[in-house]
Amino acid sequence: MTGYTLPQLATPPKAGPNEAILVASGDLRLSANQLCWPAQDAMEQAIIAAFAKEGVTVKRGHPYDPVEKHGFISSQRMGMDVFKQIDPDARLIVAESVWQYSHHVLAGLRDRTVFLAGRSEHYLLAAFVLLFPSELWAGEQAVQAGLWFWAATSKLNHHFPNVIAVMLSNNPFFRSRRLRRSLYRDFPDDLRGSRWAAWVAHGATALEYAAPLVLVFAPSGPVRVAALVAIVAFHTVILTSFPLGVPLEWNLFFIYSALVLFGAHGDVRIWHLSNPLLITVLVVCLVAIPAYGNVRPDRVSFLPAMRYYAGNWAIGTWLMRPGCLDRIEDTLRCAAATPAHQLEGLGDDTDVPQALGRGQAFRAMHLHGRALAALVPLGASGMLDDSAYPDPTAQLAPDELEVLDGEMVAGMVLGWNFGDGHLHDERFLEILQEACGFAPGDVRAVMIEGQALGSPTMAWRIVDAASGTVASGNLVAADLLDHQPWEANGLALHAEA
């Protein structure tokens, strides 16, 4: 029997018939909340007085914090805790007297985390098409065809064969050990993707181009049916591989969409679209933004750029001196505990480094992750020699640094991350630095940008939370093809002066 105790759900107190609850959403930045609080407080007093004249008592849903010196909801985690204590039937007042980066009460499009988490490049656009019922099926077909086209285009790189090797070798339905090992050149001594993996990758890319083209342009008949069978099989293979970093429900939705849009409503054609507004929005979202995002991946998230799951997107690995990650957890109202603290509740403490190390190993199996073997030591070089400890015996050893994927840090603080390195880049570092006040060398992030379409290089940079950019440069993506996941030497980093 397990010793786990189920949590007890508390019932919030009932609000009175002449009571209203006031909540105020704030900012992740402590300084912004403190600066804006006097104006917010004055407005709230006016609201309380106005409602009192009407016989309504206004109570705050969350108290003023004398330590932080403001009364705002300052994180999504705090917002969840606040609303657990509010009667769901109570009359609610959301009062904001200042313009802030707010997402703790009302999730808006200004919050890029919520925008990306909602897969807005797909679902928001598809919902927009619903505003034009007379052109519904043609519009949704255009959205679906655009997603397929750019997903296939994102695979035109050196990265995808290694993605195929890792994904298929983890497929629970591939029981043959010989088949799994055939995806690598010489398992376990050479873990680069094999020619067989490359052929599978190229075949998958060709299929993702060809089948949608047939569905869009071919007349009804056996050829179109064959294309439907092929695209359903394509997404079924992805679905049954249980690949990390891939939304499985998205592939289910693609299977359903293919059958409904191009099967049941195959008599409708994309070129039946006629509404100028709908056509303009579709061209912007399905052509202009993805095209720009593919040539400037540093400016556009890989999701609206539709550069899907081909092993080529921005990544980051964080290096932290002991205690710094705990300081983030203690200072901010995080959405979750640190990965180590979460894992400690599941097993022995000795299991934690091994479990976290598996994440780094998985990252290194992909092409851009291999660059981290050379860049992480470069980033750590200025963190081990701490001027605060002049005694050489007090200096840090390399294995004392906490090495954590940036996605885990962002997930811990923001509550969500989905492979987008832009959610844990310099802007995220600045927020943490303002709240935690790290010293130079306490926290550094090694960041690698996605490879632009048509460019042979990938930009990298090492950023210190306190002192800014430490080093930057670019590396040739093709050079990574000659490196094993564990090799740190011999990679030309082309550092900028």
Structure description:
- With 497 residues, the protein is an alpha+beta fold.
- It folds into three domains: 19-106, no CATH class; 116-295, no CATH class; 315-482, no CATH class.
- Helix content is 44%, strand content 11%.
- The protein is built from 18 helices and ten strands.
- A hairpin with a 3-residue loop joins strand 9 (457-464) and strand 10.
- The longest helix is centred in the first third of the chain and has 24 residues, at 30-53.
- The chain starts with 18 loop residues before the first strand and ends in a 21-residue tail after the last strand.
Strand order in the sheet with the most strands: 7-6-8-9-10
What is the percent of helical residues?
A: 40-55%
Number of strands: 10
Largest sheet: 5 strands, antiparallel
Output the structural class: alpha+beta
Q: How many distinct folded domains?
A: 3
- pLDDT < 50 stretches: 101-110
Distance between the termini: 61 Å
The coarse silhouette is globular
Number of helices: 18
Percentage beta strand: 5-15%
Rg over CA atoms, rounded to whole Å, is: 26 Å
User: Which whole number gives the mean pLDDT?
Assistant: 87
Helix and strand succession?
EHEHEHHHHHEEHHHHEHHHHHEHHEEE
